[in-house]
Amino acid sequence: GGRGLCGANAQVVAVKAVRIHLVWFCPRNFVPPCYRMMKTRAGNADQTEEDAEGAKATKAALTSMPYQCQELILYGSVFADNLPDLERRLTGLCDPGSTEFHEHDLSFSLRTGTDPDVTIRLRRRFNVDSFNSHQWQFRYIGGPEPDQKCPVIVRKVIDSIAYSHLMMDFVKTLGLRMDYEYIAKGTVWTNGKMKVVISQIQKTEKAGYYDQSNLKRFSDSYLVEMSVCLPDSAEYTAV
Question: Could you tell me the pTM of the whole model?
């Protein structure tokens, strides 16, 4: 989707029935260890030890790629009448250009009994062909972490991409239960690492039916989200 995180360090989950295969996107200059070994055998034998050490270093760097980050986020809302003013302001403050999106979001939770429930979000593109497409964004969202030094919501998140034509069956096998779903349509702006999302939220009046006759807006207001993701161990400071 337009809000998905699918960069060089993104985690990809390919799901077929209940089998899960994890694949990491490699950096552009990454050379697979097997190719390095073949190249070494065909070339100078004196380079064997050097290439082997390089392969170990590459493997170590690959397995240490962060898959979890801390998200700092603020929520707000704006009336539809004031939306053009906000968009003009963002156009002047943010990076050139913006991205429109139209997505189907589902929120699931895992009941733990004692600890706070585990929250998982599923997201996919919403359009005419969206229900023939089996690619989803998985997002684990941790609970808010109180911090008096930071006047925003701080939480741990994990993003991954999943592909399955049996996604609902798969989430049931994980013990997840759907809490709610909605359709979000809006625009994304960026300013460096910061992301600003403005969206209008719709709900379906009949579960499983997503044609326009069944979709109703929650309100005349637009949801505004401003967030930035930092490495899990990074310190954040006021800007």
Answer: 0.68
Q: For residues 227 and 206, what is the distance between their CA atoms, to the nearest angstrom?
A: 32
Nearest-angstrom CA–CA distance, 45 and 80: 69
Q: Rounded to the nearest 10 degrees, what angle do helices 33-42 and 48-63 cross at? A: 170
Structural Rg of the chain based on CA atoms: 21
Label residue 146 by pLDDT band (50, 70, 90). confident
Q: How confident is the model at residue 130 (pLDDT cuts 50, 70, 90)?
A: low
Residues in Cβ contact with 52 at an 8 Å cutoff, skipping those fewer than 6 apart: 37, 40
Average confidence (pLDDT) over 93-101 = 95
Spatial separation of the C-alpha atoms in residues 54 and 36, rounded to whole Å: 9
pLDDT at 57 over 70: no
What domains lie within the chain, and their CATH numbers? 31-63 (no CATH), 68-231 (2.40.320.10)
pLDDT in tens, 164-213: 888 889 899 989 999 999 999 999 999 999 999 999 999 988 887 888 88
pLDDT at 214: 87
